[in-house]
Amino acid sequence: MASSDKKPVLAPASTGIQGQEPPGKPETIATTVIDAGAKLVQSMKPIQKIKQHACTFALYGHDLHRQIETSHYISRLNNDFLQCAVYDSDESSARLIGVEYVVSAELFERLPAEEQKLWHSHAYEVKAGLWASPRLPDLIEKPELENLARTYGKFWCTWQVDRGDRLPLGAPALMMSPQGVNAGKVRPEMVKRRDDRLGISSEYLKEARLEMAEPEWIHPNADYWKQHGEGFAVDVVSAEMKTVAAFP
Question: Does the N terminus or the C terminus of the chain have fewer Cβ atoms within 10 A?
Answer without folding.
Answer: C
